[in-house]
Design brief:
This protein is mostly helical. It has a single domain (14-189), classed as Four Helix Bundle (Hemerythrin (Met), subunit A) (Up-down Bundle). The chain has helices spanning 14-34, 39-62, 68-91, 97-119, 129-147, 153-189. α2 runs antiparallel to α5 (129-147) and α4 (97-119) packs parallel to α6 (153-189). The longest helix is centred in the C-terminal third of the chain and has 37 residues, at 153-189.
Length: 197
């Protein structure tokens, strides 16, 4: 979002509708992965989620529909999709549980930082580019990891790529948390932090 765009208090916007649609896809994805284990359909839901994530940002900027609700809904939908997906993959024994702990730990840590900033009267820290890059890597990694749950040659070929995206996503996810702490500290101290990312 451009720095000069002031978010509105509007609720009924195209980006917000897309974010709510993405949130509604979470239980659908979970059911597909855990009940019928319909991995192809589950991957399709993840792809639709990723496309709507891109579209809601595009719509917010191009239609001038940047809203305070959207600034909360969009990252919540992203984080929920990432966490639900990685938990489902752990339940299917596709990824180890430490991956869930590392991603969940980051989100708990970040929630504490946001609460600390809010308790001092400042707004929610906006999403930074590193956080967006981390989410993008994870949204590539998770469907690829799901597709590796077979004994096919394609599964073997995708595994290194899937884990490369996962490692980059995890690393960037935590680096973005460090940047959020720096942004929050700068807000509380009344200084400006210029991130070169």
């Amino acid at each position: 979002m451009p720095a000069d765009v002031e978010p509105s208090d509007r609720v009924l916007t195209v980006p917000n509708a897309l974010s709510l649609f993405r949130l509604a896809l979470v239980p659908v994805f979970l059911w597909l992965v855990l009940v019928p284990e319909a991995d192809g359909w589950a991957v399709a839901v993840l792809v639709v989620s990723g496309v709507t994530d891109w579209l809601d940002g595009l719509a917010a900027r191009s239609l001038g529909q940047v809203s305070r609700l959207g600034q909360v809904l969009d990252p919540v939908a992203d984080r929920l999709f990432v966490l639900v997906t990685v938990v489902a993959l752990a339940l299917r024994e596709i990824v180890p549980w430490w991956v869930v702990a590392v991603l969940l730990g980051r989100d708990v840590f970040l929630a504490a930082v946001q609460l600390w900033v809010r308790s001092r009267g400042y707004p929610v820290i906006p999403v930074n580019l590193v956080g967006k890059a981390a989410t993008t890597c994870l949204l590539y990694a998770l469907p690829l990891l799901l597709l590796t749950d077979s004994t096919s040659a394609l599964s073997d070929a995708l595994r290194p790529l899937a884990w490369a995206f996962a490692w980059w996503g995890i690393g960037l996810y935590w680096w973005s948390a460090v940047l959020y702490v720096m942004q929050g500290s700068a807000l509380v101290r009344g200084t400006t932090l210029r991130l070169r990312v």
